[in-house]
Amino acid sequence: MIQPHTFSFLKELAENNNREWFMANKDRYEAARENVIEFTAEFIKELHKIDPQLNKDLEAKKCIMRIYRDIRFSKDKTPYKTNFGVSIPTHGEKAGRAEYFLHIASGNCFIAGGYWMPQADHLKAIRQEIDYNGQALKEIIEEKEFVDLFGDFTAQDQLKNLPKEYTADNPNIKLLKLKSFVAFHNLTGADLMDGKSPARIAKICSKIAPLNVFINNALA
Length: 220
Description:
Layout: H1 4-15, H2 19-24, H3 26-50, E1 83-89, E2 99-105, E3 109-115, H4 120-141, H5 144-150, H6 173-176, E4 181-187, H7 189-193, H8 197-205, H9 209-218
């Protein structure tokens, strides 16, 4: 489970986002990161039970995203992220296809899955699969428990205009206009501090797994 000290560190980092404070509290950061790595290792084991396509031998620490922000092109020059991001790919060992993503922050946690902002060739392939086999995707995203957990899948950011090669009368046009294909569910700190949280969050992900399979099949 995620320990209270991890949330305390993230809360204070958000209030003191500067190098001096971070260096003075580097040992707290290392302890929090180690806690997230341990949690992720357990979470991967639980995910593999519900999604066998996921590599159960993924190295947990390689799934933890860097806490250092890239500020080169940002107006916000604060040097550190105020969350731990956990990116768990479902294909190989790197991101770039469907994945599970866990966001851990003080007062703002969530679990997500799918494919956020696919690169152009992947987006084209996913749209082709939707055009050919949209009913299969609709059966996943319109299933009652999926909607209860993640809401309206088509409510994500969409193109203002029609994507090339598709017309307004296409029965899957709302799906074809999507820029991302993500299922998202908010969590509380208490959810993550529960001793059974890896298994419970993996159960939520069991409803994301068919979406990830659909996406990965489109990219096969």
